[in-house]
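Sample intake — Cbb3-type cytochrome oxidase assembly protein CcoS
Collected from: Flavobacterium aquariorum
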Amino acid sequence: MSVIYLLIAISIFVAIGFFIAFIFAVKSGQYDDDYTPSVRMLFDDELIKSSQNKSEIKG
């Protein structure tokens, strides 16, 4: 039974470690998306044209 308590304690410490690493990665900009905004402007025009074409066909 004491092994279960030990394993629970170790798993909590590991989970806290991963959570701290995740928070550090987010604050340091690891998950910032620098690529999509520069490419999005190339595809926005196609989305607008296709939605206008659909509305012209329906109306």
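Post-analysis note: The chain has a mean pLDDT of 82.
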